Amino acid sequence: MKPQGLFRCCVTALLLLASATAVAQTARIQRADVQAITDASARDVAALIAQPGFATAVTGALAARPDGVPLARVMARFDPQARTQAARTLAAQDRQLRQRKGLPAAGAELLQLRAYVPAGARLTDVPAAQLWVAVLPRGDDRHWTTLTAYDLQGRRHTLDARTAPAFPVLIVDVDTRTAVEEGMALVNAGLQARGLQSPERIRLAANGSASLDLTRLDRIRLADDQEPWALGGAEVFAVVSGLQIGAAEPEMATLTLPYLDHDNTDYTPGQPLVIWGNYRFDAANVQLFEDDGDTNYQDLLVALSDGVKAALGAFAPEYAVIADIAGAILKAMPTTWFANDTDYLDGFYLLQRGQAYTDRMGAANNAKVTLTPVTLTE
After folding, report:
1. Taking Cα atoms as reference points, which of 128, 172, 178, 170 lies closest to residue 40?
2. Which residue from 277, 291, 302 is spatially nearest to 344, judged by alpha carbons?
3. Model pLDDT, residue 20
4. Alpha-carbon distance 329 to 312, whole Å?
5. Torsion of CA 255, 258, 259, 264, to 10 degrees
6. Is the pLDDT confidence value at 136 over 60?
7. Which region holds residue 353: left if phi is over 0, alpha if psi is between -120 and 50, else beta?
């Protein structure tokens, strides 16, 4: 290689390394910011416990939705006119949370309040002055050993992450169900704008009738992942990928699986999983990820667009590339995402159009699915 060419290669490598380092650093900062926001909000809520009427607002809001209620709704019960400093502070922290997650400023509140209540107990069993407010820690949830809870005087208490407490505890965290729904819409719109997601291709018969082939998810089960008691239900999304028709480009789409809350449980959603017509060779991959709250969806869009194309490089649109696209998706994800924010659950490679799959295990042996081919006609 000529010296000039070697110099350019070295410069390019250094720039790519610097870019990757910057992305990883940014992801770490965003994760830290999200955790800092929820931690500050937990301390604010704990300090409010002693205020007359606040505990009643909490129990009233959680009575119908113990698995999670917007913190803004609790504050609206307690302080309808938002006259207190606490109401203004929590509202500002909610706006900061949307920003850290790469979502538009206008949208639903993401800070939520949940209650962990042991079997046979009630939230009202604990006097308001004795309620603790917990916050989820940073890092890989599989490695959590403890988490922090605050009392009304701001004192820190340590709870075991694996063994649930014998008394009710309030938890402040991110409403990941709302965030994932909004985030996937943002990602899909971005993929379409970048030419990596095609409009649905309707098949037209000679008589003019239209039909659409899809693969329906009829049953899914996740293995026991031994997540901590404080996490609550999972929020799972899928990335469907393959080769575009008529171009040497990846084809990608995301969708949510909002019902898939718990492991070791059978779900029968009857949900369209792959909509065919846009995938060359009538083959596609499906990869499952879990969002535990820290994902920045703008970063996810960049990973799925720029990152995947960079990982693939120039390629000929051959059948073998379809599986390579799934590998490129994993390679493009920042390594910091495979911690507490976005966990890779499993993947199904080279699914075929028109093929039924019964109790098909994923590559990671974590998810089992039953898929049915369906044709919708006009």
Report:
1. 172
2. 291
3. 38
4. 9
5. 80
6. yes
7. beta
CA angle 222, 225, 226 (to 5 degrees): 140
Highest-pLDDT range among 5-9, 11-15, 31-35: 31-35
Nearest to 134, CA basis, from 117, 153, 116, 121? 116
| pLDDT one-digit tens code per residue, 84-100 | 999 999 999 999 999 99
- Stated as kind and residue range, the H or E segment containing 321 is helix 321-332
198 and 245 in contact (C-beta within 8 Å)?
A: yes
Q: How far apart are CA 142 and CA 345, in angstroms?
A: 13
Q: Say which residues have a Cβ less than 8 Å from residue 332's Cβ, sequence separation at least 6.
A: 303, 304, 307, 308, 310, 311
Amino acid making up residue 197: Q
The vertex-26 CA angle with 23 and 30, nearest 5°, equals 140
Is the pLDDT assigned to residue 9 strictly greater than 80? Answer: no
Single-letter amino acid, residue 205: A
| Residue bearing tokens 């205020």 | 51
Half-sphere exposure of residue 338, counting CA atoms within 13 Å on the CB side? Answer: 11
pTM of the predicted protein model: 0.85
Stated as kind and residue range, the H or E segment containing 275 is strand 271-275
Query: Identity (one letter) of the amino acid at 235?
Result: E
